[in-house]
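User: Structure please.
Assistant: Input sequence and predicted structure:
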Amino acid sequence: SATSVLRGWFTPILSSPRLPLKRALFFFVFLAHFASGFDGAGDSRWSIPTALSIVREGNADLDEYADVVQRNNFYATRVYKGHIYGWYPIGAALIAAPVVWVADKVLGRLGVDFQATVKVGISGGFEVLVASLVVALTAVFIFLIALELTGRRRGLSLILALLFAFGTSAWSTASRALWMHGPSTLMLAIAL
């Protein structure tokens, strides 16, 4: 099954003796990026609503957000076969879906309707949370790649991962909102 394949891929990573360093790298990058704030709800504005639609309804349309789409002057949306969709590919929403699922369940237990919250206004803070998680996870994979390329030199690998996290557009763009940049970088790092 897909779960056992993924478990097989990630077990060596999670069982590594260097896990504390990976955890520290992940949390440091995540906290620094998340604390940097949101950079506006432009092209990424439909990532979280699309992810929530995938989680709750099993589809990627934005029909349940028609009033929000109208309030946003139909920005970056299109109608296809009578349904409203975000203009941009759904990759970022698919990456966000597990985090959105957890948030929806946790908030639901606390009596908060996540979808109603999203309908009130596109949640920039939640976008940054997901985008920062994605960039932090990417930094861990960059660290793993660097370990292989440097002959297991941890210090140099850590420096390279931090250069990626803070010296590239990972910080200025990929973690500022849930654009396609962060998820595509993560997928490329995993593939490498």
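The CA atoms of residues 146 and 157 lie 5 Å apart.
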